[in-house]
Every structure is written in structure tokens, then in C-alpha cells.
Amino acid sequence: MFKRLFLNEKFILGLIILNTIIIFVGGYATSPHQKFIVSIADNLITFLFIVELIIKLHSLGTKQYFSSNWNKLDFFLIVISVPALITFIFNLNMLDISFLLVFRVLRVFKAFRFLKFIPNVNQLISGIKRALRTSVFVFIGFVTYIFIVGILSFSLFNSSGSEYFTNPLIALYSTFKIFTVEGWYEIPEQIVANYSTTSTFFIYFYFIIVVLTGGILGLSLVNSIFVDSMISDNNDELEKKIDNLDIKVTELINKVREDETRENPGQS
């Protein structure tokens, strides 16, 4: 009964949802007592996840367990939760082990276990993989364009006194903001404050070109290619079946004609 409970996906889904709620509610805990209660609940569920891991490893065997990518994800998420559990059980907060705090932060990733219960999630992941493979060179080209425009903008405006182009890295970030049509008017307005009327015209014109090529055309192109690849079906197998069907139909027609020729030799 105990073993079947932890092999029941609905029970595990309930634990995952409960754990996600506890992590969310924990952000509102203010008093030490509230934080202690939330910590007890969170670590108790972590312990139950460890029990689930042990039972599944024993039932499926190591090889079969790790043959599933979802089980690999489960294993990773459970393992990164163990240091926080150890810290809680042995009250290691009294010691200087602040590096373990990173593992407490990583506990939020346990919510990723919920993904495998989403209907048709495997098809969704396959679509994302297919879209990434199709769009990889488009992404590389777009990132290269961001880099070129960012470095060019830094060279043009680093002496303008604008906080958006003080160094190449900030200039790249500012360029990306413009490409996402975020701050596309604030950034030029700050720059032109220290320039003449003629220079202001060319600065505005420069940023209009940047917004059009990167923010409107560039992002739209990347997005359309990615979405189109993601929602398109993989028709390789279907095309192969159609080709095989065409070959069989052709063979059948030829066979019928040969039979007719043998039955009516005078008509040939």
C-alpha cells in the first residue's frame, strides 16, 4: 500500500502542487514562527520526494529509471533540495555555511516537476526542439546584428553623457531594449539633449532605422520563423508513407495492364 502510494502519479502530482503553494506562501512569511512552519512543511515534502525516488529506483531499477528524461529531471531537482533538508534537520544555520543558501533558492525549481503532468507536453517539447533547430541560424544572425548595432551605438554616443552607452556591455543591453521597443523614445531623447539641431535630426533618423530593422522587422522575422517551425508537424514519416503508397499503386496498375495483355494478346 505504501509503495503503491508513491508510485501513484496523482499522489505525486498532489505533492508537487502542494509544494508549489508552500513555496509561494513562504514568500509572505514574516515572523520567525511563520518561517519555521513553512520550512517544516517544505522540508517534509522534500523528504517525501526522496522516499519516492528511492521507491522508484528500487521498483524500476537504475537503468530503466534513468532511461526517462523526466526521471532524470526529478532526480536532479530532488538532489539539489537535499542540502536545504540537511541544513534544516541538523540546524546548521548556526554555522557559517552561507554557500548552502543557493540550494535553498534552487528549491523553487521543484515546481518544474509539474510540467510532466501537462497533457501533450512531449509534443510541445518536440515542437520547441524542432523550432530551435530551424531557427538557430536566424537567432545567431539576430544576435550578431544586436552586437554590431550595440558597438556602433557605443562608438557614436559614449561621449554624449548618456547612461545608456557608458560602456559596450550597457550599450548592448540598451540596444536590446530598443529592439524590444522598450525605451525606444526615452533613449534618443536623453542623447539629443547635448547635441545641435542638425545632429539631433540624424540621431533621430539613426534610431528610427534601428527600431525598424531590429525592433519591428528583426523580431517579427525571428518570432514568425520560430512559431511556424514550432506548430508545423513533422511530415517526414507521412511523406514516406505517401511515396510508398504511390509506388504500390504504380506497381498495381502495371500488374493489371500485364494481366490484360496476357488475356487479350491480339489487342496488344
Give a description of the structure:
It is a single chain. With 268 residues, the chain is mainly α. It has 2 domains: 117 residues, Four Helix Bundle (Hemerythrin (Met), subunit A) (Up-down Bundle); 112 residues, Helix Hairpins (Orthogonal Bundle), CATH 1.10.287. 75% of the residues lie in helices and 0% in strands. It is built from 12 helices and no strands. The radius of gyration is 30 Å and the shape is flat.
Main attributes?
flat; 2 domains; Four Helix Bundle (Hemerythrin (Met), subunit A); about 270 residues; Helix Hairpins; mainly alpha
**Percentage of β-strand residues:** under 5%
Label the structural class: mainly alpha
Classify the helix fraction into a percent range: over 70%
Main sheet record: none
Based on CA atoms alone, the radius of gyration comes out at: 30 Å
Number of strands: 0
What is the succession of H and E elements? Answer: HHHHHHHHHHHH
The CATH architecture of the largest domain can be given as Up-down Bundle
Which outline best applies? Answer: flat
The CATH homologous superfamily of the largest domain is termed: Voltage-gated potassium channels. Chain C
Helix count from the secondary structure assignment: 12
Mean pLDDT: 79
- In the predicted model, the low-confidence regions spanning at least 5 consecutive residues are 94-98
By CATH reckoning, the class of the largest domain would read Mainly Alpha
Separation of the first and last Cα atoms: 78 Å
Return the domain count.
Answer: 2
CATH topology of the largest domain: Four Helix Bundle (Hemerythrin (Met), subunit A)
